[in-house]
Structures
1.
Amino acid sequence: MKLKVYVDRMSQPSRAILIFCKVNGIDFEEINIDLTKLQHHSLEFKNVNPMKQVPAIVDGRFKLFESHAILKYIACAFPGVADHWYPSDLFKRAKIESVLDWHHTNLRRGAVGYVFNGTLAPLVGRKLIPKVAAEGEILLSASLETIESFWLTDGGRFLLGSTQPSIADISLVCELMQLEVVDDEDRIRILKPFTKVKKWMEDTKIATRPHFDEIHEALFKVKGILQKRRISAATLKINSGSKL
Amino acid sequence: MKLKVYVDRMSQPSRAILIFCKVNGIDFEEINIDLTKLQHHSLEFKNVNPMKQVPAIVDGRFKLFESHAILKYIACAFPGVADHWYPSDLFKRAKIESVLDWHHTNLRRGAVGYVFNGTLAPLVGRKLIPKVAAEGEILLSASLETIESFWLTDGGRFLLGSTQPSIADISLVCELMQLEVVDDEDRIRILKPFTKVKKWMEDTKIATRPHFDEIHEALFKVKGILQKRRISAATLKINSGSKL
């Protein structure tokens, strides 16, 4: 029985799992749970993940949610996953655990707070909350500074100075890719001070191509829609201004 | 060279690591980093953990921070740690990872938001923020409901239906013990609906005695001080009221 992966490609941890599975040649079935249609609240999906969140997996009789737990499970349960993704070496693995734990309460919290409350909320019927978005941006920038000055300082192209990517690289870069949906000016402004971060994002994309680009197509589609809306809104503003 | 464990016993993840080490007979040196004296901002401690947070460990040349990563490292690096703490079985371990990841963005976020912003902030020179505390309480109660109705439903006395505790039990119960410092009425009100949670907390205490009680003495000392302050403040209020 194939591994079932329940995802919405607009969700950054969903994309991380899809990319990881594809890069490692894992035979899986992708099941789309459309968050904008509130499919994560369906009774059927509640049987998969009672927390009503994507990503989640079903592997035979085994059910699991939380993206980091899923990445580790897949890295260990399927043959052929190269060791660098989740090293069996105790010290290397511990450091990756440390990055992943740090991610929860820093980069992820900041990025989600900023992107969701500043841009994405209306897509799932919620209101924008500029104050929460602003708080998110502060934590996001502090987290980017930590990646730039600490997690990327040990020589290699990837986190912790590794010469090859780990599940932490995929998880964190997919999080940062979510910035594509905000206004381009804002994204460029936020990332501008962080040269190493931008290089690392590019290196992670290259290391996981062509899957990285393919899995991110959905995000770029939404980016395009939001950009058009912004242009329409700006044009409307200019036109209504000229009529005054 | 002994394992060095940098902690403040007022920090709940610090206590989790101390209890875990003591229960498992690990030979370690406890180094107190007094958060109220801002010792976590010292240059010396920055060399141990650049994130300026406890807990952190130094094991020979190896440095590590983030409490879950530390618990897993110790469980794997030291001989004699019973398998139930962090099972080598792939499926059991994956479920524990899932609880630990869930903890970061649910119970921990809720409990810290509530306890720190509603009670502890002044001890480290910060202001109380009642609005953030109230938001924290909502997430804390929702997380308690999830523990009660989901994580504790599989039969055993511990999380995931286990008959013996894991690192997740220690981590989550230490988090909930932080509620001891809030007003007793509030703690009792918040925990009241959750019979299984209260039983599980008691079972975890029993399973890790006498270390659990010993390590929590510092917390109960602060609880006593805060209780006295509350009584003094209430008395002052009554007295000044009677003078009106």
Note: The interface with chain A takes residues 50-51, 62, 64-69, 72-73, 76-77, 90-91, 94-95, 97-98, 100-102, 104-105, 108-109, 146, 150 of chain B (CB under 8 Å).
2.
Amino acid sequence: MSLDRLIEKIVKTGNPSVVGLDPKIEDIPKYILDNAIAQYGETLEAAGAALFEFNKGLIDAIYDIVPAVKPQCAYYEMYGWQGVKALYDTIAYAKSKGMFVITDGKRNDIGSTMEAYSNAHLGTIKVGSTEFAPFGGDALTVNGYLGSDGIKPLLKACDEKDCGIFVLVKTSNPSSGELQDQKMGDKTLYNVMGDMCEKWGEMLPIGKYGYSAVGAVVGATYPAQLDELRKTLTKTFFLVPGYGAQGGGAADVVGAFDKNGLGAIINSSRGVMYAYKKAGMDERDYAVAARNEAIRMRDDITAHIKNR
Amino acid sequence: MSLDRLIEKIVKTGNPSVVGLDPKIEDIPKYILDNAIAQYGETLEAAGAALFEFNKGLIDAIYDIVPAVKPQCAYYEMYGWQGVKALYDTIAYAKSKGMFVITDGKRNDIGSTMEAYSNAHLGTIKVGSTEFAPFGGDALTVNGYLGSDGIKPLLKACDEKDCGIFVLVKTSNPSSGELQDQKMGDKTLYNVMGDMCEKWGEMLPIGKYGYSAVGAVVGATYPAQLDELRKTLTKTFFLVPGYGAQGGGAADVVGAFDKNGLGAIINSSRGVMYAYKKAGMDERDYAVAARNEAIRMRDDITAHIKNR
């Protein structure tokens, strides 16, 4: 289908932003880890329990004003399968609160393997006659280096489960240009990848806001490219990382939005998760600080969209 | 460091092949899943237990004649965190039998996130003062679309933990050419990526067989490119998928090897895992069939190397 389910939540909350959930146990409030260690000892179970507890507090604090969360798989895998259980619990909890979940895995592989990833993150599988959604996300970030074979199994899931994908186009990191900015014929690699997103998106019905199920990841740290891509990729919704800790501001991301103020969702992870540190607040108030920062970010971005 | 630990196991076994562990519960012997369901019910725990039981049988059957296994993360994630636990158990078991483990995750992200993936799959993390290797693989496959930022944290792990990485260069799937074969200046994208592998590899000491810690994934299904890349990438060891079920044969992969018969390891997954089906053997003899096929594959490849 399309990304309409996400866009409708953005419209409803009046907030085109997503909070990244990328917790590290060294960075979360110490009392949460201490409690978990008191219960489970110095184990990966304790790490996983602490991640989930921290995320639950964040979700409770923002679910009514933020449309989506984006857990980053790496930070859960870093605590073993016990951490991956916390990823599952986090996704389930965010969905129970009505949030749209973008699983940030940047998965990629050959077709048969992408079918497995698709089942894992967007679809369902059966054990005997009992069906399970192994992770149950609403969208998955993917890497398109392998071409269409690696994308098509996901399109099937998008269609059947009303889900979406976001393909890496122009990433937010400093070295993204080493390959992505190089010319392939008369276009850059990121332009070529962007064009493929449009083409893949057109294989499914376009949603009522004009966007397909195939979004693109375009970094806030490259505002000129964001502007350019918004003009050329008319059916491709953008997931924009790099606001906040990575250096992007509201002025940098305003070009990601269409004339209706839609077309993109801006991610902040560390800026929201650890807002209590920057605000000089007690660690026990981390959720309040996160809500304050989520509101500030929303207002910052929507004001820039309105005033452009 | 380098990939010497892998190469030494290849030399010792006289076998430049790796068995991919990509099990699906529909495809493994039925009695294994039935036993797991009898114990755990129709649950993801049962699926995970069945995967591990199947893998254990394969590892027991091949560990003395095959230097390495390559579990594909997707097939474990497909059964939720319970499946990911089976990935952990499989890696630990293979290592306990002396095998080299290549975790096939094709991970990729910005630097700070790749540090998390690096800790997850190659390194260690601490909970309080207790250290854990969350997954404990010896090498990880990665995707280089984000450039050097996404690779450098892994080089640190390669150096400190004597591990390796394999970067996707020319993949085995039919659509790999859509991007990888396109010209970027006067080179193809896969040539450019290959050159980056050489450069990244040179950032660490080169091993005694002449290869760095940074390998490349080059598909058996593209023999001309395999030949070409072996000639130009002199310090880059190759992981070659696509033998067997994907259509590559020994004649196709012989170009991957250097004059000493080293420089590459050839992967077969389905061909070995499900050899009992092709051989018409009872499903309870799956491990025997896998060993037979592993021996046949070894002899097929080494004969072609000798006779070229």
Note: Chain A touches chain B through 73 residues (CB under 8 Å).
3.
Amino acid sequence: MARKRMRNRPSPHGPNPDQVAKITQPKWTLPPYEIASTEQLQLLHDKSMQILEEGGIAFYDEESVQILEQHHVKIVDQIAYFDRAQVMEYLAKAPSQFVWSGRNPEHNVVLGGDHVVFAPVVGPPFIRDLDRGRRDGTLQDLQNLIKLSQTIPYMHSLGAENVVPSDVPIEYRHLETMYALLTYGDKPVMGVYHTGPIAADTLALAKIMYGEETLRHNHVLHCVVNVSSPRRLDDRMLSMLIQFARHNQIVDVTPFILSGAMGPVSILGTVAQLNAEALAGIVFAQMANPGTPCIYGSFQAVLDLQSGAPVFGAPESQLALYLSAQLARMYNLPFRAAGAYASSKIIDAQGAYESVMAMFPSMLVRPNFILHAAGWLEGGLTVGYEKFVLDCELLGMYHRYLQNVSWEEDEWALDMIINEVPPGGHHLGSSHTMRHYRTAFYRAGLFDYDSAEAWEASGSIDSIQRANQKYKQLLRQYEKPDLDPGTDEALRDFIERRKQEL
Amino acid sequence: MARKRMRNRPSPHGPNPDQVAKITQPKWTLPPYEIASTEQLQLLHDKSMQILEEGGIAFYDEESVQILEQHHVKIVDQIAYFDRAQVMEYLAKAPSQFVWSGRNPEHNVVLGGDHVVFAPVVGPPFIRDLDRGRRDGTLQDLQNLIKLSQTIPYMHSLGAENVVPSDVPIEYRHLETMYALLTYGDKPVMGVYHTGPIAADTLALAKIMYGEETLRHNHVLHCVVNVSSPRRLDDRMLSMLIQFARHNQIVDVTPFILSGAMGPVSILGTVAQLNAEALAGIVFAQMANPGTPCIYGSFQAVLDLQSGAPVFGAPESQLALYLSAQLARMYNLPFRAAGAYASSKIIDAQGAYESVMAMFPSMLVRPNFILHAAGWLEGGLTVGYEKFVLDCELLGMYHRYLQNVSWEEDEWALDMIINEVPPGGHHLGSSHTMRHYRTAFYRAGLFDYDSAEAWEASGSIDSIQRANQKYKQLLRQYEKPDLDPGTDEALRDFIERRKQEL
């Protein structure tokens, strides 16, 4: 190992993670699944360092190059060559866990350490449901998806633009998106942040919502910096990263590598490159502002050589994820693992197989953040209403799974097994069953367990039809959280003023 | 640990597992996922021993009770009270791995050690496909399912009655089932074995097919002994077990526990009871014939309290499976893990989510045998043609997954990452990609990776429709393996004679 696992580093500012006790946020107690030996992990680290030292990472942004030069990084033609001592020095400044605050403090969550956070799909231009098929997303759709995340207890965050609201003019789309995120729910929000200027507007709205002082000492926004693999960060990403880092907001550095296109066709080469790219982004964030809360993200799929499409839930990706998670754990950085990704256009058998094949491995590696935990279809081009609520059944199951086995004495039920229930008897009404049955098992309400006869008699309703009814029922149940009218007015004033300017 | 992990015990008879090198049979090289500490595992073992010593296991069969008494097991009212020293003494006689032979030796597989065997669904009375819905199974359906297992390379066995052929009179149904298994394919076969007399006919047919000497020295049949939990083995199961054990054929002891009904609602209690029951069956097989090749099976689901139905793919079952696998590994016994179980009536999203949630955990525990690896629907009441071929795509992916990460030097592709592909470039035509792309990724042929536009233009064909076409195409591709006409005639003669008698 290049270095010992770093000690727990508390966030320099804001609330103390140890004091954010969330009954709904799963806490990891299972052992992490690790497939690389210490020597193999060291080798992966060394090869990544070689990529950083000899290959370098392009920073196509003037201000970023200046920051790198101020921190004595060697730059040739906008390519930064980090040496490994530098990398380790700056990684040590990143907190290992921190609090992500929502508008309602009861929804605050811990990012990092042993804590797991689920967030919904982010980014698709299209939306699909049974009633209307696939179409451009609208502001109404975005609001609906925020309402679903706000209502479903297994979702811990509202994410960012869960669908692109195409009916809002592009010049001020980010403002209406951010307004929807801030007002339709009160769970933690990521924000809108495609470029530096957009990030600035997002930060301005957050300042109005939370107040300048609160914003300074709390992490209330969370941007994803996608490295444009291979080995490139562009000015849009970098200008946004700098703004978030300087405002002490969360920077999630996630290379997107499609093995065979943006990286080699091999697992090892892909993971080494992904590691180099993720670390370069995190080191840069620490140079922009030491102590910036960062997340190490892994987003990897393989190339389908017949169609050129990304393949999600592939076995190669499962193995790559295990390795990436081990690296992030070695660096003691919060780790973003894979969500319920699917290549399928619809949530049929393929879509469901892919989603679990993509996400179950994440549940094995002590993940800290799962973006796109529900709703994702068609390689991220589409969000499905039905897929969203079906995936949330998985999230409910994972909440139970992450509770681990209870080793309480009463769990043995030995007296019942040995003395109370005879051979061939049953445990249905036994004393132990009566004590525990209400809480013993997670029940997936969207899944049908009726007999085939009863199921056919009631119309042979399949999962997607049930999910169609369910998402509409959840929208009816939704309650809008209160918002101080003065704050709302101030948000609207800012937005209307910016609309005039843009 | 009650005892050190037992040394590798070769099978006393027949082919040497080390010499059965199957390119298609996956070999386990990943580390097993283990969630219990050594102390916790010891506790699980101790509690199971307490169940055997104080609760005992009912053996409702006269001959079995005699066998137990001959081996000094304490019997009161047909309940056997094993002491832990006895259990350990007899477990040590069970081989840790052995060869399961097919009619074609090229299809022989190793059961145990680091080897994984997939077998199809066994037992459903009903069959379903898109064209005809759900209906009683027929002999034609059974033949079709055998043809699919024979044709699909990711299936290593033909299993047993993949569907009950209801159009064959019940008196001699087992004979026609066994004939179909022996003649429509040449991969390893389990057999038909619901009772002692049926097992005797199955053994007689195997004797005709393989010859008496071969049968004596090879494991060509494989029965599943389902303990009737809690703590009961009935005369049907026991008489069949004794026949298989005395003929040196494989005995797979698998308690079926629906937590909340046949076992407690807790994970720990369920696993302790399941362990006691599985060990009792294996110990008894060793008493019936020392060295009998045995499998330690875990079949556990939870009870849906609203419908009373078994729930498959539940998070509680995933955790229970990890514990059972650790116990089997401690005893150095071949372990049967969970297959692609689903409660769903059809292979919609629910069916697919459940199947992966049930089977992916098996891929983490160094499994040796996966029965019901394809086709299972409706809690095992129905086999689906489309489900069968869709699940086989998962088996293909698991074959790739089980290959683990390659740590070959060329896998790093460092020269390509550092020197050949510039920042923002692509790896599509690079030298490393050209060398490896043909074999780099598993491709799921049944999954659609086209764009949404192309997919819609070609009719928006969903997974189940594609699978419907696929299974028919596989049936057309099927080639019947050669069979010596004299042997065929002898099999038919035996069957016709038995039909007269029955």
Note: Residues 1-13 of chain A have pLDDT under 50 and may be disordered.
4.
Amino acid sequence: MAVETKTISVHSEGEMNVIDITAKIDEVIRKSKINEGIATIFVPGSTASVSTIEFEPNLVKDMKNAMERLFPSDIKYNHHETWGDDNGKSHVRATTMGPSMTVPFKDKKLLLGTWQQIVLIDFDVPARKRDIVVQLMGE
Amino acid sequence: MAVETKTISVHSEGEMNVIDITAKIDEVIRKSKINEGIATIFVPGSTASVSTIEFEPNLVKDMKNAMERLFPSDIKYNHHETWGDDNGKSHVRATTMGPSMTVPFKDKKLLLGTWQQIVLIDFDVPARKRDIVVQLMGE
Amino acid sequence: MAVETKTISVHSEGEMNVIDITAKIDEVIRKSKINEGIATIFVPGSTASVSTIEFEPNLVKDMKNAMERLFPSDIKYNHHETWGDDNGKSHVRATTMGPSMTVPFKDKKLLLGTWQQIVLIDFDVPARKRDIVVQLMGE
């Protein structure tokens, strides 16, 4: 049994950019000594989440529409008074969806469905580099 | 320390079928060599989620009502244009709730509350067999 | 590799009390023999969740407003007919957000962002003591 903690980085356009990170996680597993176990995928920061989706542009649009419908951009957020920020919606979306996901793998393969990709969802406003922790544990 | 990766299967009626899988996970733990650790429960596929609930029929109805209120069946989903599918709502619900959960256990017992069951929530439309990965890790 | 299962306790005021439990989890890690691995944070019970947030009072208010908007207190919940309870909203919120989160740590430090705290969100109505399982696994 062993644990390996890595960081992957992606460029995010911000504002509900949904980024497929499956290949990067596959690569972390391929280069590791671990064949079977969990990949814990964790976003440091409080304005992004990780989940899975069938990664195709129309569904990504549907996800953006759902987030805008549930946590609208144009309502009042008290958080804006704290820092003069404009990303209250980003925080509330990220806290609701959570920063973390664990995906099991075996024989060095993530046990995903055929039409299921791992994505970072960036709820924040500005473009930026996003670091994501990928920690493998197993044997 | 060891890792064991199993798959359990259930029959799902589709359309917000909420299925109590606690007993099946208990059985995986009972038959394993691991006494203390985590059970990672992961649904391959992008139209179902796992969570916990007080599993009683009225609350299951409330959960269905909430999902229908937040992600209605009768609004436009762009995903329908991609494949001619009708399950845009199913995907958006599943991505929001996530495919994965980790539950700790000790002395071969899941550390759940008294009124807390582990459930598969199938957001997709058709009835089908659903496979769920249960991976135990610990000692 | 080792696993250590601990329980931390907090006093909750109920009704959307959001409680920063980061320092308590830091302490569990500091006192353990494990330097690198995952902390699985799990709430037994079906009316509370764990997530991360930038813990400041205005954002906590925004989170309360969002939950009230999405899962209102003043609509019908079938669950109330089962036990004569009044916490249908609490259950539906908790099942949607989930009871569990895994956070990686290294060199005994949780890999959180600078403005990211781990919180218990108590969706239930009465004040009470809340127990939270913190299970460390790693080496």
Note: The mean pLDDT of chain C is 97.
